[in-house]
Structure formats: structure tokens, C-alpha cells
Amino acid sequence: MTPEQRLEAEFAALNERIVGLEAAARASADGIAPAGLVDEAIDTLNGLMTAYATHAGKPIPVTDDPLEVFKAYVKGDPSLNAIRDNVRELVYYRNCLAQGRQDALPGNSALMTAHTARHVYLYLRTRCAQEHRLP
């Protein structure tokens, strides 16, 4: 399998995870993102950043901390800061839930969590296509 095929396969698997996030978000009765949904979205973002950066030859730390992954992902290419606010948004949601502050979450945070993951996926997938990284 070529590096481009591997990247395409990783993005396809991550897309399936996002489809699952979207389904779970739509099923959320009160619209509040449960911790599991936010954790899955953060893990998916980590996967997207890692797949993209690894294909570019960047070393990425093995951690579940999205801010650490983001720092390595963006290093050397400031244009990759385009997803910074998306990463921060999910970290904010996670922190609100960890502190029992569901009241601090925006309305319909479950759908916003899934949409944030989808947004990052589409951004990176489009970048990959523009950079001829996909077969």
C-alpha cells in the first residue's frame, strides 16, 4: 500500500467515525453533548491531524491531548492553524463536562461537536486533494 493509499484509507475510516458521531448527536434527546461523544470527536480530530502530519513526515506525539497533537501538527506550516479554534472548541466542551458545567455549553452542543469534527475532516480532505496527496 502506498502512503497515499494509506492516507486515503485512514481518512475513510475517520469519516465513518464522524458518521457515527453525527448519528449519535441527532439521537441526543436534550442536545447536550455527552462526554463520550466529545471524547470520540477529540480522538477523531487527533486521528485526522496525525494522519495528515504523518503523511507529510512530521513526528507526532502519541497522546490523547489534542493540544499537544495540534502543536506538532501545525509546526512548520502556519496555514494549518485554520483548525485551531475547532480543536479549542472541543477541548472547551470536554472541560465543561469534566467540571459538571453543562450549563456553560452552547445550545445543541451535541450537533456542534459532530459538525466540528466534520468541518475538520472536510478541510483536511480538501487540502489533501489540493496537494495531490490522495490517489
Would you kindly provide a written description of the structure presented here, covering whatever features stand out?
Helices cover 68% and strands 0% of the residues. It has one domain: Up-down Bundle (Four Helix Bundle (Hemerythrin (Met), subunit A)). The termini are close together. The protein has 135 residues and is mostly helical. The protein is globular and about 45 Å long.
* Rg calculated over all Cα atoms: 15 Å
Structurally, how many domains make up the residues? 1
CATH class: Mainly Alpha
Q: What is the number of E strands?
A: 0
Q: List the total number of helices.
A: 5
CATH fold naming = Four Helix Bundle (Hemerythrin (Met), subunit A)
The biggest beta sheet reads: none
CATH architecture: Up-down Bundle
Structural class: mainly alpha
Query: What percentage of amino acids are in beta strands?
Result: under 5%
Work out the helicity level.
Answer: 55-70%
Q: Which segments are poorly predicted (pLDDT under 50) over 5 or more consecutive residues?
A: none
Described by the principal axes of the CA atoms, the overall outline is: globular
Average pLDDT: 93
End-to-end distance, in Å? Answer: 11 Å
| Run of helices and strands | HHHHH
